[in-house]
């Protein structure tokens, strides 16, 4: 059952010898100690476990580790470079777009995926792209502003 | 217990804590410097913080001025998104006259922070915050006295800025707090009522400050209790019943045990699977075969309110005046309504989670909770060990809203750690989170009210079944009135599920019912709903001002409902704060879909410490309030819960977000009141009234789903 699976995580090649059916979220959190990716509902409804897999935002609670084989993964820990925060992170801070912060990594990763495809989204496009990420504290308005602000600042240069 | 008795009990507990405190050990643990502890001897200090009768006081604070000039605040409060990690240091720094950047805060560590009842009831600022200010002011006075000795002058000849004391006549003569406390280990308690700063003297309070924990949270570095990883830690899954109250008849764990690495611990019906991988533990639990005998309870969503009405037999009057049984004059009109509220869940995105390890005979726990101290007591009791052998550690909580006052997961993780003798992490699944949540109780409200031919309210007979008393009393000028609470000793009694405090407990139900009924009468009287309220608030200048300020921001123009505009408002009082919400809603008459386009919150909450923090809390109240108003409802049959994840329990989403404006009445010289809860109480009533204004349809049941809205429109 154990298989060695190689992939790139936050720019570094890595490998895990695990059951390939292991849920990606648990592999990230418990094997690689990347605990910024959060468990919320376990069925892909809330988005707090969102990570980027080959430029696509995915719900890591819904996919097996084997899906990452040979691919590039980015988690919240991989967004800041050389101690400098990513513009999306900066915009969230500037707009105070968080409260308890538990959904925040998933929000930021989903926004990252959205901006990769659509660097300067309209308000409605942000809403459509973020609709299935849930925040119980009710910070949606500030998140929408943050994503638009980050998009404008980056002018298309989203990728880390 | 009477309020006074409760306070006395609480106060005596605080004093005992201080007396019992081994000062030398305490100073060793907390480090050198000047430590100021607040011991309550002067109740008038807290006058004006006006907690509800059923709330407990918490009145503990201490702070340390360390050798390197860092000031550390120790508090039993926890940060769960509501912002005390930012606002409490603001209060402290301002009163102590130090730079905000020099303040550190340690929260919810039961070994080094003072006892605290819990982070709830919007008490962090209005009760604890005032105590903290007093403690800081006392610390400032003590340091000035020490500086006076150092500089050979009188304390009133001194000034302080950024922790540097200097003489007014010659500012070059100076000494810093750090120098004064260097090498000292002094423990002082506050004995007199210190003078708090007036608004004009405040330099930090009243100016907006961004969340100081934001960077940790946007980088994924903020630690929640499930992020703690310990060597040799095992992940636990507990064998659960299909419904509450079900009794275990038989269990077969052999298929689960056949999975490599699975271990089982058991204590009677408490059966737990352990594995070094969460993933495998999640799978293994599905291989356990069980047979349960479920408890029969004849109630479901369809019969719920009939059930509540029938069982709400224990009556407690909580207010009356005039003759509530009076016959209305023949020229008057009587209105009889029944309002129905369902069970709703807290549904924080972080489920109840805990990690625990025994180090020797001491149990270390990290738990997502609002109440580290009572959780510590519960754990110690469950394990039969002394309280000092349990430590709850500082940790972020991923949303709570009242749902993490109770922490069964902490007790369970402790039991498992003891049984297995291993470090354990227990993460509730979303399905467990729903089933074991202390739901907002379902409620029935029956109101009989009346107006004269001139549109004057003359009768108000208000009865709430099972929903609770907070916010039940009305505040309008009505000569004959009565408010009754039915099944007041209920708590979870009579309900098929556990129930408890949900953000502004009881007040969402009460404000929605009251403010709906008010507008039913306003419309019948041919009056503008805002003017109708103002006409009955002659005695209540505070609410009048809040209403007028909100109306101005909203751009309210008088009209008799239904005006077709989709305007609605509701007002109420919660946690000492007077609040009104105005909304504009669009109702799709063919689908029943309701979209709230904009909302204005106007509130009088006394001193505003962090304006930005208050605005963010009010925004959160509007968004979260749309959930209980439009979509949230637990579906169930007896004690079996059918709504167990977000596919069937609909939380507010991005597309629901209205434009939100918040008006805070300027009262910077008054004591602070609640900020995290009040605005949410108005959402049900404001939206219900907006739907009526748009369509003429009156809804009597929450949530106002598209189906219910359509049904109500058809009935008009």
From TrEMBL, chain A:
PROSITE patterns: 2FE2S_FER_1, 2FE2S_FER_2. Gene3D superfamilies: 3.10.20.30, [2Fe-2S]-binding domain (1.10.150.120). InterPro entries: 2Fe-2S-bd, 2Fe-2S-bd_dom_sf, 2Fe-2S_ferredoxin-like_sf, 2Fe-2S_ferredoxin-type, 2Fe2S_fd_BS, Beta-grasp_dom_sf, Diverse_Oxidoreductases. SUPFAM superfamilies: 2Fe-2S ferredoxin-like, CO dehydrogenase ISP C-domain like. Pfam families: Fer2, Fer2_2. GO terms for molecular function: 2 iron, 2 sulfur cluster binding; metal ion binding; oxidoreductase activity. Residues 3-79 form the 2Fe-2S ferredoxin-type domain. The keyword Iron applies. Keywords: 2Fe-2S, Iron, Iron-sulfur, Metal-binding, Oxidoreductase. This is 2Fe-2S ferredoxin-type domain-containing protein. It comes from marine sediment metagenome. The lineage of its organism: unclassified sequences, metagenomes, ecological metagenomes.
């Amino acid at each position: 059952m154990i298989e060695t699976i190689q992939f790139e995580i936050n720019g570094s090649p890595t490998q895990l010898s695990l059951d390939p059916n292991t849920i990606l979220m648990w592999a990230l959190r418990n094997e690689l100690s990347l605990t910024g990716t959060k468990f919320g509902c376990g069925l892909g409804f809330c988005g707090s476990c969102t990570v980027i897999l080959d430029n696509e935002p995915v719900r890591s609670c819904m996919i097996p580790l084997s899906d990452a084989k040979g691919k590039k993964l980015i988690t919240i820990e991989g967004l800041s470079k050389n101690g400098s925060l990513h513009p999306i992170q900066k915009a969230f801070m500037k707009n105070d777009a968080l409260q308890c912060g538990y959904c925040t990594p998933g929000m930021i990763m989903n926004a990252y995926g959205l901006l990769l495809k659509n660097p300067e989204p309209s308000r409605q496009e942000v809403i459509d792209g973020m609709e299935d990420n849930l925040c119980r504290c009710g910070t949606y308005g500030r998140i929408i502003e943050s994503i638009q602000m980050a998009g404008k600042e980056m002018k298309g240069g989203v990728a880390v | 217990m009477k309020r006074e008795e409760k306070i006395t009990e609480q106060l005596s507990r605080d004093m005992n804590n201080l007396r019992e405190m081994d000062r030398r050990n305490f100073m060793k643990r907390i480090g050198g410097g000047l430590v100021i502890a607040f011991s309550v001897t002067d109740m008038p200090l807290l006058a004006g913080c006006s907690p509800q009768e059923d709330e407990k006081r918490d009145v503990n604070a201490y702070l340390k001025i360390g050798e390197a000039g860092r000031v550390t605040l120790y508090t039993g409060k926890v940060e769960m998104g509501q912002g005390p990690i930012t606002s409490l240091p603001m209060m402290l720094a301002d009163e102590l006259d130090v730079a905000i950047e020099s303040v550190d805060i340690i929260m919810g560590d039961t070994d080094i922070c003072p006892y605290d009842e819990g982070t709830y009831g919007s008490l962090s600022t209005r009760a604890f915050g005032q105590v903290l200010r007093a403690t800081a002011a006392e610390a400032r006075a003590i340091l000035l006295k020490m500086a006076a000795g150092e500089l050979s002058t009188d304390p009133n000849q001194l000034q302080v800025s950024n922790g540097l004391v200097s003489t007014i006549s010659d500012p070059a003569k100076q000494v810093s707090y750090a120098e004064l406390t260097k090498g000292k280990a002094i423990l002082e308690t506050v004995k007199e009522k210190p003078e708090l700063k007036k608004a004009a003297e405040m330099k930090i309070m009243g100016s907006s400050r961004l969340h100081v924990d934001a960077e940790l949270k946007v980088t994924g570095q903020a630690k929640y209790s499930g992020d703690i990883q310990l060597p040799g830690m095992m992940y636990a899954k507990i064998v659960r019943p299909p419904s509450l109250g079900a009794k275990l008849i038989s269990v077969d764990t052999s298929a689960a045990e056949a999975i490599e690495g699975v271990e089982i611990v058991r204590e009677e019906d408490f059966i737990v699977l352990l594995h070094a991988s969460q993933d495998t533990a999640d799978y293994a639990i599905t291989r356990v075969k069980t047979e349960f005998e479920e408890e029969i309870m004849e109630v479901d969503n369809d019969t719920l309110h009939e059930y509540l009405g029938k069982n709400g037999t224990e009556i407690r009057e909580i207010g009356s005046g005039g003759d509530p049984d009076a016959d209305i004059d023949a020229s008057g009109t009587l209105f009889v309504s029944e309002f129905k509220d369902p069970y709703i869940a807290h549904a924080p995105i972080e489920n109840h989670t805990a990690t625990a390890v025994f180090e020797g005979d001491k149990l270390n726990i990290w738990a997502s909770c609002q109440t580290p101290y009572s959780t510590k007591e519960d754990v110690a009791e469950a394990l039969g060990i002394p309280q000092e052998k349990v430590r709850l550690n500082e940790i972020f909580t991923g949303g709570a809203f009242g749902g993490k006052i109770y922490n069964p997961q902490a007790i369970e993780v402790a039991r498992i750690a003891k049984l297995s003798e291993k470090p354990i992490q227990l993460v509730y699944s979303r399905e467990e989170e729903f089933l074991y949540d202390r739901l907002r109780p379902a409620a029935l409200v029956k109101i009989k009210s009346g107006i004269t031919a001139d549109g004057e309210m003359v009768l108000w007979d208000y009865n709430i079944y099972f929903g609770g008393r907070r916010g039940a009393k009305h505040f309008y000028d009505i000569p004959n009135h009565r408010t009754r609470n039915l099944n007041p000793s209920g708590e979870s009694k009579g309900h098929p599920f556990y129930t408890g405090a949900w953000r502004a407990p009881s007040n969402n139900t009460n404000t929605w019912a009251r403010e709906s009924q008010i507008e039913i009468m306003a419309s019948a009287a041919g009056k503008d709903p805002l003017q109708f309220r103002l006409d009955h608030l002659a005695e209540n200048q505070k609410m009048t001002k809040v209403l007028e300020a909100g109306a101005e921001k909203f751009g309210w123009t008088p009209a008799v409902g239904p005006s077709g505009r989709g305007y609605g408002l509701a007002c109420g009082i919660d946690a000492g704060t007077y609040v009104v919400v105005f909304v504009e809603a669009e109702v799709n008459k063919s689908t029943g879909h309701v979209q709230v386009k904009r909302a204005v919150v106007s509130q009088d909450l006394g001193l505003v410490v962090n304006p930005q923090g208050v605005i963010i809390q009010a925004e959160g109240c509007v968004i979260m309030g749309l959930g209980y108003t439009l979509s949230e409802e637990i579906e169930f049959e007896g004690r079996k819960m059918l709504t167990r994840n977000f596919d069937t329990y609909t939380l507010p989403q991005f597309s629901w977000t209205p434009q939100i404006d918040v008006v805070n009445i300027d009262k910077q010289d008054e004591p602070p009141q609640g900020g995290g809860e009040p605005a949410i109480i108005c959402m049900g009533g404001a939206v219900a009234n907006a739907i009526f204004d748009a369509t003429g349809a009156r809804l009597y049941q929450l949530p106002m789903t598209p189906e219910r809205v359509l049904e109500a429109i058809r009935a008009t």
